[in-house]
């Protein structure tokens, strides 16, 4: 398998070739003095005012930030030097921030193309073509609360931002396909981006996958294998090893995920800042914590670049039936494993958390909240009354805000991220309305019962 090269690795190790995990280096990465070439797959005819170059330099351990690895190959099992049987630590991507162009937050592309390409400078090289991901609306629902509606992405979820980056890694690896373990959104998104890039896709899911989601995933040509939950991650690794497929989901006991994935989520923060400035707080539905970490990192980078006065407080919102991130923060541990009770919020129902979420909440001085299914249903209904149809899991952010007893010290606007369309819910499409009597009197009575008067 051949790795595509853009520049020499910061460690001085060639990016071409295969073999075991790359050797780590310590200390700051060496900057390559040569210009970085445009990211493969970037749309032609882009405005020269928008920087299309990746300034990514290396991968860095979150367990020990002094440990760095070459940018390629992407690490898919966390940091091999700091992870143990008791705890898995992820890696993140580092960048040459000194070369970020002026106007990073304000420059806009001149023509059509994936909105994510606008932020190429602070993303891993985008080797895979996009589908128009990103650029989702920020909707004012009153009282200083805004909704960042991620259901407007190509496959109707935030996962498209992640999979533009992870499938780019698969293309760079020369992999024949990708493999993903997913309860729904991640699998559909990975299947779509794999199809766009001309790659095969295997989705390991659960037997309870909603029929609509199964049709959605298979429409892209993916092989869908419903298996017991305990077998999904081991099978992901086996398919990666046996078939050379690139894994775009987790492989470790405590979730580390893909090194490049959360980098795509940074663009949520960039877009919020470009549209609104710095909010006082952001509330996010939280499963394994990758979105939470990506949004925190995006705001942190903007603050580092002098483009924001600080970083907003981040509030993770997990189902009360589980809540591994809340458990980890309560106990002061880098991660936790919990028993998960019944919940309809299947998209964020997770028995184990990851260190990324702990980092995001602690460093933003935020809080870990848990919300009941009833809290999420009320929030989902509130959003529907505002014209926004989201799945139950996606309403967790607004549910978290609404469960707070007071303003919680917010001085400024608050953003709630909704992650996915209501089309994805397990009960969607299960019932059809009964035929209506078309007589004028019967219709009048139906409208009257709905509170509509002539």
From TrEMBL:
Bias kind Basic and acidic residues: ranges: 438-448
Keywords noted in UniProt: Lyase, Pyridoxal phosphate
Cofactor: pyridoxal 5'-phosphate
Keyword Lyase in annotation: yes
Protein name per its UniProtKB record: Pyridoxal-phosphate dependent enzyme
Keyword Lyase: yes
Region (Disordered): 1-52, 421-454
Coiled-coil residues: none
Top-level taxon of the source organism: Bacteria
């Amino acid at each position: 398998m051949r790795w595509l090269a853009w520049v020499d690795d910061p460690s001085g190790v060639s990016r071409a070739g295969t073999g075991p995990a790359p050797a780590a280096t310590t200390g700051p990465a060496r900057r390559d003095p040569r210009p970085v070439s445009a990211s493969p797959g970037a749309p032609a005819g882009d405005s020269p005012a928008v920087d299309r170059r990746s300034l990514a330099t290396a991968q860095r351990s979150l367990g020990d930030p002094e440990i760095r690895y070459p940018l390629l190959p992407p690490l898919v099992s966390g940091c091999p030097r700091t992870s143990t049987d008791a705890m898995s630590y992820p890696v993140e991507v580092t960048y040459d921030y000194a070369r970020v162009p002026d106007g990073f937050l304000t420059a806009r592309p001149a023509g059509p193309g994936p909105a994510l390409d606008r932020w190429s400078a602070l993303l891993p090289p985008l080797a895979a073509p996009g589908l128009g991901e990103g650029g989702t609306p920020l909707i004012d629902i009153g009282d200083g609360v805004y909704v960042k509606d991620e259901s407007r992405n190509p496959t109707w979820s935030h996962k498209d931002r992640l999979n533009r980056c992870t499938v780019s890694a698969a293309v760079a690896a020369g992999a024949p396909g990708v493999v993903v373990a997913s309860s729904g959104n991640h699998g559909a998104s990975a299947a779509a981006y794999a199809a766009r890039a001309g790659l095969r896709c295997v989705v390991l899911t659960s037997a309870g996958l909603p029929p609509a989601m199964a049709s959605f995933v298979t429409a892209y040509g993916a092989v869908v294998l419903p298996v017991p939950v305990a077998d999904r991650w081991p099978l992901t690794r086996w398919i990666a090893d046996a078939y050379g497929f690139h894994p775009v989901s987790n492989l470790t006991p405590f979730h580390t995920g893909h090194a490049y994935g959360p980098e795509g989520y940074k663009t949520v923060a960039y877009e919020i800042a470009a549209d609104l400035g710095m909010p006082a707080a952001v509330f996010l539905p939280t499963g394994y914590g990758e979105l939470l970490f990506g949004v925190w990192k995006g705001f942190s980078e903007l603050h580092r670049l002098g483009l924001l006065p600080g970083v907003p407080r981040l509030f993770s919102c997990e189902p009360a039936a589980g809540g591994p991130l809340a458990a980890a923060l309560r106990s002061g541990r880098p991660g936790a494993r919990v028993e998960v009770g019944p919940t309809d919020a299947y998209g964020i129902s997770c028995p184990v958390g990851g260190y990324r979420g702990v980092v995001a909440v602690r460093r933003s001085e935020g809080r870990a909240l848990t919300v009941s299914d009833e809290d999420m249903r009320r929030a989902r209904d509130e959003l529907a009354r505002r014209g926004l149809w989201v799945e139950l899991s996606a309403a967790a952010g607004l549910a978290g805000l609404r469960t707070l007893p007071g303003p919680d010290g917010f001085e400024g606007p608050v953003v709630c991220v909704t992650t996915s369309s209501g089309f994805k819910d397990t009960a969607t499409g299960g019932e059809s309305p009964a035929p209506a009597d078309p007589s004028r009197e019967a219709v009048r009575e139906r409208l009257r019962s709905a509170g509509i008067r002539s």
